[in-house]
């Protein structure tokens, strides 16, 4: 199963999720793709993801984690034995998102909520000490205006990496990397 894990204030309706869904459908693999709409609370998001992942044999699951979704995916990889493609992943989001404290609105659904210190605490609880290099593909853009791509490169040292010159946090040219994502997933299928 290929499971897309969206980022902060994003949704299953995001550009990258839609591209991946379309490619999987065009390949006749739509039944092997999922993209849940995650709650804004990290603990609730992780509970939903753990339940979804548990429905399949761990080695056959590959997560595609974008931004905050990459952070979530890292916890799932290290605790449940799945694999992940990380797209401009957030590293230490409990520090990165401090300026976001206060009122928030989901970019796609319009849902309004208060982003609190409790959210940051829940994120901090998901930190893992190390990563297992063979379980990851990092795809990161040097032009990311939200995250320093070098933090991801360092965090995922030893992992397979595709470093894209330019681009941005939204990864407007993600379509050029769909085949790499699907190939990584297919290598792990049982």
Structural commentary:
This protein is α/β, with parallel strands linked by helices. It has one domain (2-188): Rossmann fold, CATH 3.40.50.1820. The protein has seven helices and eight strands, in the order E-H-E-H-E-H-E-H-E-E-H-E-H-E-H. The chain has helices at residues 15-26, 42-54, 68-80, 93-96, 117-124, 149-155, 178-188, and strands spanning 2-5, 33-34, 62-66, 83-87, 102-105, 112-115, 136-141, 160-164.
Please provide a brief summary of the model:
The protein has 190 residues and is an alpha/beta fold.
Any chance you could write out the topology, listing elements then pairs?
Elements: E1 2-5, H1 15-26, E2 33-34, H2 42-54, E3 62-66, H3 68-80, E4 83-87, H4 93-96, E5 102-105, E6 112-115, H5 117-124, E7 136-141, H6 149-155, E8 160-164, H7 178-188
Parallel strand pairs: 1-2, 1-3, 3-4, 4-7, 7-8
Antiparallel strand pairs: 5-6
Question: Low-confidence runs (pLDDT<50, min 5 residues)?
Answer: none
- The termini sit apart by 10 Å
> What proportion strand?
15-25%
What is the multimeric organization of the chains shown?
A: single chain
State the secondary-structure class. alpha/beta
Q: Within the CATH hierarchy, at the fold level, what is the topology?
A: Rossmann fold
Mean pLDDT: 93
Counted up, domains total 1
Q: Count the beta strands.
A: 8
CATH superfamily: Alpha/Beta hydrolase fold, catalytic domain
Number of DSSP helices? 7
Gyration radius, rounded:
15 Å
The profile of the biggest β sheet is: 6 strands, parallel
């Amino acid at each position: 199963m290929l499971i897309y894990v969206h980022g902060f204030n994003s949704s299953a309706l995001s550009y990258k999720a839609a591209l991946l869904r379309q490619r999987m459908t065009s390949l006749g693999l739509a039944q092997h793709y999922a993209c849940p709409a995650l709650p804004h609370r990290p603990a609730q998001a992780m509970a939903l993801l753990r339940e979804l992942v548990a429905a399949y044999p761990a080695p056959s699951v590959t997560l595609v984690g974008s931004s905050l979704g990459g952070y979530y995916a890292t916890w799932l990889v290290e605790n449940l034995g799945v694999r992940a493609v990380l797209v401009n992943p957030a590293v230490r989001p409990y520090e990165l998102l401090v300026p976001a404290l206060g009122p928030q609105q989901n970019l796609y659904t319009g849902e309004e909520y208060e982003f609190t210190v409790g959210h940051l605490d829940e994120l901090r609880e998901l930190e893992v000490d190390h990563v297992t290099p063979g379980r990851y593909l990092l795809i990161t853009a040097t032009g990311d205006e939200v995250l320093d791509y070098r933090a991801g490169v360092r965090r995922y040292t030893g992992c397979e990496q595709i470093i894209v010159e330019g681009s941005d946090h939204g990864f407007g040219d993600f379509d050029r990397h769909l085949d790499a994502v699907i190939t990584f997933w297919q290598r792990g299928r049982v």
